[in-house]
Amino acid sequence: METDFDIIIIGGGPAGMTAGIYAARAGMNVLLIEKFGVGGQVAQTSTIANYPGIANVDGSELSMKMYEQMTELGVKTVFASADKIDFDGEIKSVLASGVTYHAPAIILSMGATSRGLGVAGEKKFVGRGVSYCAVCDGAFFRNKTVVVVGGGNTALQDVIYLNNLASKIYLVHRRSGFRADDAVVNEFESLCKEDNSKIIQKLGFTVEEVCGENTVTSVVLRNIETQELERINVDGVFVAVGRNPNTELLEDKITLKDGYIVVDEDMQTNIPGVYASGDIKSKKLRQIATAISDGAIAGTNASKYVKILRKVGKA
Ligand code: NAP
């Protein structure tokens, strides 16, 4: 089965949905293909406190508002896995769950996926104590002991979130300095300083092994300086050590830098008519604000590209 659009957006996070909103408002017939549910990483974030104009908003609520706005503007969403992209020629195609969709312009907004620790026991206990999303799985660890691994925004926000649920939280980070924003570090540190704080910082440590029987019962830590090993008893392990861009579909056709898509200031990749936006593209600051900025630029310029092709009768 084949069907035609002006623009196909792959990925329904804030970047993809914003691209959809801008392209639809520019008069384009837009298809958005999303594998799971809309919102991407944002939908799994409990409180977003840095979205301009809304002091505090639940991530899934913000995602649904973006989705409703985009849908009301006429963007069609298909919940399917994009399996293959054909970038050749003026009309590109995307195969998703057995259906081929055609369009002159494509916007790649597939985001990035949580990175693993790559240590013994991690994979074995996924869903049985090992989690990559505190907001999704935190409730399973009410009044239990957990360890959060990482030193970025996600890790410290996970600790802040779990502080309302777990009875004890170890924060394991390989350095003494944090990568997270100052505001997040300050909130984390003030929780650590509270009387009877539940948080125990293990800085300069890595996780060596995740252990258990049916579920996680402990982790083995390595002190990076002394190389000494230490076992701590925990019920859950939240891995928050960054993310990898979802570029598997691109098959060396799209130029990457350090694994992320390179674009020009119009968000266009090395292939005319193919744009990228959000966490999948090379950039320094990965935030909702920067994702929607990318999406607005990509949606606008993809629309301009299609209009030019239309004028010369090629779309
Ligand atoms: P990140 O900023 O890349 O931080 C990853 C952390 O994990 C770093 O502290 C890193 O240590 C550590 N790490 C990496 N590999 C490791 C390994 N193999 N073993 C142990 N530790 C390891 O990732 P993120 O926290 O997921 O954030 C991703 C992006 O989303 C960032 O740009 C972040 O600002 C943004 N974000 C924003 C918000 C918000 O509310 N504004 C929320 C979440 C995420 P080193 O520091 O030593 O490299």
Structure characteristics:
alpha/beta; 30% strand; binds NADP nicotinamide-adenine-dinucleotide phosphate; 315 residues
Description:
24% of the residues lie in helices and 30% in strands. It has 315 residues and is of the alpha/beta class. Helix 1 (14-25) runs parallel beside helix 2 (59-72), helix 1 packs parallel to helix 6 (288-311) and helix 4 (153-162) runs parallel beside helix 5. The mean pLDDT is 95. The protein binds NADP nicotinamide-adenine-dinucleotide phosphate.
What topology does this entry show?
Blueprint: E1 2-4, E2 7-10, H1 14-25, E3 30-34, E4 47-48, E5 57-58, H2 59-72, E6 76-79, E7 82-86, E8 92-96, E9 99-103, E10 105-108, E11 112-114, E12 130-131, H3 134-137, E13 145-149, H4 153-162, E14 168-173, H5 182-193, E15 199-203, E16 205-212, E17 216-223, E18 229-233, E19 236-239, E20 243-245, E21 256-257, E22 260-261, E23 274-276, H6 288-311
Parallel strand pairs: 1-9, 2-3, 2-10, 3-6, 10-23, 12-19, 13-14, 13-19, 14-15
Antiparallel strand pairs: 4-5, 7-8, 8-9, 11-20, 16-17, 17-18, 21-22
Helix pairs in contact: 1-2, 1-6, 4-5
The structure holds NADP nicotinamide-adenine-dinucleotide phosphate.
How do you describe this structure in short?
The protein is of the alpha/beta class and 315 residues long. The protein is 24% helix and 30% strand. Residues 50, 117, 149-155, 157, 174-175, 179, 206, 240-243, 286-287 line the site of NADP nicotinamide-adenine-dinucleotide phosphate.
